[in-house]
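FORM 7B: Structural annotation worksheet

SECTION A. Query
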Amino acid sequence: MMKNQALISVIIPCYNYSHFLEETVNSVLDQTYQNFECLIIDDGSQDSTREVAEELEKKDPRVKYFHQTNQGLSAARNTGILKSKGEFIQFLDADDLLSKEKLASQAAVFAASEKTDIVYCRALYFDTEHPAVFYKDFQKKGREWMPKVSGRGRKVLRQLIRGNIMVVSAPLVRRSLFDKTGFFDIELKSYEDWDLWMRAAENNFHFYYSDDANAITYIRLHGSSMTNNGVKMLTALVVLYKKHKVFFSSDSDLNGLFDRKFKKAFISLVAYYKTDKQELSRYVGKMPFTRTERSLLCSNRGLLNFILLKMIAKLK
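SECTION B. Predicted structure
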């Protein structure tokens, strides 16, 4: 166990998830590692989040409730970081859970290694209707998707270019990391955690994957379509590519890997859009096409590949 039981700040952003909040907070209160503060950041909820949170606050002084006008998930997490007093940060969405040994297990890794900045563990998925049945991935295909990578720099970046390496509640993060990386990017509407891990890797912070079977984060499954997942992935890749291009451009190997990943994502999504013109039109409106390109793309799908490739070239 860590010397003097370092304080861990558990940050729970919540927006209209009052019906899950008590169970989520209880998974924190039940931790074997008890030196924590649990910060509930109410992002302008319109349900009974305030009432539930204030009751939890009355029951345990380590639970602290904060309210803000609706600003989005990233802004809520950032508020939590600013309000936190802990040496380490644990993010936890308001509908997800932690295993009882999660904090203790990861705190022990930090106690044993001063060089480590991020310790992450495995994630299991569950349905609300069947909370005792767990899946290795959100598609329920029985495949673990999270790479088990430990190290820093290029080793971690190669994995991050291929995709996000963890869910946001998998790691315990050293608080001082944010002094250099900055907080979550509020301009990103998806994969804001992926962006944060990339910035951490670019700044040479040390990642460690813990294979302790007792350290688990449980992710609640919600319905989402394959098309929506694809759109989110593509949007994130476009934004991340533009945002991190300067860093990757100095390394031909990493830059080439990112280029290949970026192009593959564009081409693989062509099939989605060809079958749904309305979805295509809605999405294209959000992308950095010229007015002429946008018009051509939505009116003549035969030009789709050409314009997508042209856009890729523009981003280089």
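SECTION C. Observations
The longest strand covers residues 36-43. The domain at 8-220 is CATH 3.90.550.10 (Spore Coat Polysaccharide Biosynthesis Protein SpsA; Chain A).

SECTION D. Sign-off
Analyst initials: ____
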